[in-house]
Amino acid sequence: MTVIVQSDDYTAMLEQAAQFIRSNDHFLVVSHVQPDGDAAGSTYAVAWMLQSLGKTFTLINEGPIPDKFIYMAADRHSVVHYEADPGSVTQRYTRVISVDCADYSRIGSVHKLFAEDVQLLNIDHHATNDRFGSSNLVLEQAAATVEVLYDLCVHMEIPFTHELNVCIYSGLLTDTGGFRYANTTPKVMQIAADMLNRGVKGHELAERLLEKLSYPQISLIKTSLSTLSFAHSNRVAWLSVTLNDVKASGASNEDLDGLVNYPRNIEGVEVGVLFKERGEGIVKVSLRSNGRADVAKVAKSFGGGGHVRAAGCAVQGTPEEAIERVVKEVGLALE
User: Fold this and answer.
1) For residues 287 and 298, is the Cβ–Cβ distance under 8 A?
2) Are 325 and 285 in contact (CB under 8 A)?
């Protein structure tokens, strides 16, 4: 086991979270809408943790868990796709664990299942987290929410089963870009090494999550690269994807993962942006920075959030209107 010294405040938060879990039984577990690798990994990690403690629980998300993350369930846990059939869940939950949600709105429509007297444990790592829970376990310095869950497992002396280890490693792998981003701290590498020592096959997970591309993905990459544009002396670059682009390629939402890295990785570009048309006058925006601009502040100005180097938001209007507004705000951030 990797031993990592924690601050007194963080230890107190870990104990509060542990008491929340120990003193209750049935939980609703929810991550943010359109879950990524860390959200999925955290959801399934909590499931394996609760199972080992003999707790009962229900996993629910507003939308579906992308197929490429289902392996973390090991055919034992399923996540209810709430929007697909909202009438399938009639229970109101008094105990909720949210993972990887930077603010309450990221829970999405699942909040309708919360009882009036709900007690919520908010486990997260985003700097913009507004501590919306009745209990909050938030570590802004963490690279991923699974890193916080690793600490909670150590604190609660929860056994590190193989299934749990796979979830933790997967969340770290995706949220650090394959251990390449600036959030890859010595602690992250210590935890990753601990997981490898416990039998996780890191190379297989990297191949599954970072290397493999589907035909719809390749088609969407080809189309989106034709929209590549620059502004602010080529320090800002962006791609845009319309609903028709997604439909023509046969791609799903998860196939858009990683597209924002193409403009960000261009030499001289300080902020890369991806604009994704979602319909009904809504454009989802993903922002990535090399650190010279705080894109979390940019996203927050549009009601979103995230980290200094990676953030997102939704903007009302056409793609053209969203591009004009966001690119202008990014330019101000660079100044």
Assistant:
1) yes
2) no
